[in-house]
Structures are given as structure tokens and as C-alpha cells.
UniProtKB/TrEMBL annotation:
It comes from the Bacteria. This is Phage protein. Residues 181-264 form the Bacteriophage phiJL001 Gp84 C-terminal domain. It comes from Paracoccus halophilus. Pfam families: Phage_BR0599 (PF09356), Phage_phiJL001_Gp84_N (PF09931).
Amino acid sequence: MSETVARAWAVTRRDGMVLGFTDHDRALSFEGIDFRPDTGLNARAVVQGSGLSVDNSEAVGALSDSAITEIDLMAGRWDAADVRLWEVDWTDTANRRLIFRGHLGEVSRSGAAFRAELRGLSEPLNRMQGRVYHPRCSAQLGDGRCGFDLSRPGYSAEGVIVSDEGGQRFILSNVDGHDARWFERGQLVVLSGPAEGLSGIVKSDLALAGARREIELWAGLGIRPAIGDRVQLVAGCDKLAETCRMKFLNYLNFRGFPHLPPEDWLLAPGVNR
């Protein structure tokens, strides 16, 4: 098989799109996936450790309109995509073995080329585990631990972009009935246009006259929204106990420790404990 071996990649994006690539000079097909030879995707040597060490590799390739586009990379549509790599006998694709499975990590680009870090299945073992004891809430707004339903009336709003400054600061129209700073630390989600589906974290939120809103994001979106695009604003949470109690009426689910003594108290001499 060594003389007829080729490598085949299947990359599954989070939106469900599956693309197949191969370093063979002809197309291959198996597991319901067509693996194309003309995409310019290839991989460096896969490093696979024994035990629980992290597998790692790097995929390199060329940007093309038919496969991996610069717009999709900038929009983050390839972030955390699932990756499978086989060694396959191109004369009989039933004779193959899976040698790597993981997901894409950091993706960088240079001109018409890109590099994507590959992270193996054991990579999450490097992350810190356990609960952090802190006065602020450790849950994410709307997740299972928080339990808050963000679809409740008053906690989201839709608007239209009427002004854009640098792709990071926007003036929205038709947003009324919310206090100033209501959406700070929340999300702006694009509902239409070329950036549809992208979202960013709100840095500042100012209420203006005429049901308008000035929204600034912490970072620009991968694709710049256009004037006239519709967006949705989702309320933000600063993870303080008072905010949970007064803004979201959700204090029973607060996942912080608001009465935890501060570090200065713990380090102060002569304090009875």
C-alpha cells in the first residue's frame, strides 16, 4: 500500500458544510464525501504522542473561490471546524485508516495562502478545570447554569445600521425602549447582508434621540456590515449580584459568591479567622 497511499482530509464546519481534500492527483470518494485534488490543501507531518500528550499538526493551503475563501476565514466560519485525516489506498479506498481527528485552532493568512493549527482530541485536557470561587457570577448569560431565557420581551431588540465608523462603531435606528448601557457586554448579531450570522461583543451602548443607538464593539467583525443591514442587540450582563437581581430577576440562579471576603481581608494581619 505504501506506493499507492494518499492522504485525505474531511473538514466539517460548524454550519454543517463538509469539504474533502486530498494530496492525490485524482479525486477520491468514500464515506459519502468527495475529496478534491485541486484545492491546494496539504498538511505537515502529524505529531501524535502516546498517552495523553496533545496531537498537533498544521494544515497549509491556498485560498480559492471554490473551497476556502478569504471572506470565510475572516468571518470565522472555519474556526473550530472538525477535522479528520486518513491514509488511504487510492486504488481501493476501502483500504484506509484514520490517523488524526481533532479541530482547527488558530488560522492565519498571508496573501493568497493560509495556515491552520490542528488540535487533537486530547487538547481540552490542557484547559483548567473546576469551579472558581469569585464574587462575580461564573455562568454565561443564558446558558444552562444561568437558566435565563434571553428570548423574554425586553432583553433583545432589532435595528438597522444607518452609520458605520471603522467597522466597529455603528449608529442604529428603530431601537427604542431600553435604558442607556442596557446592551453593554451583550452581543450584536448581524441578521442580513454579507456579514449575516456574525456577532460581536458590545463595548459601549449609548441611547440617542429619535430611537437611535450608538453601539461600539470590542473588535470589528470578520466581514464589515453594510449600511441598511439589520442587526439584533442582546442584553449584556456584568456578572454582578445586583445586576442579576435587578436587571434579570434571576438571583436564585446567581453562580457567584458576593459575600466572599476580598483578598485584602485575607492578607490583613491580626484578623480573627
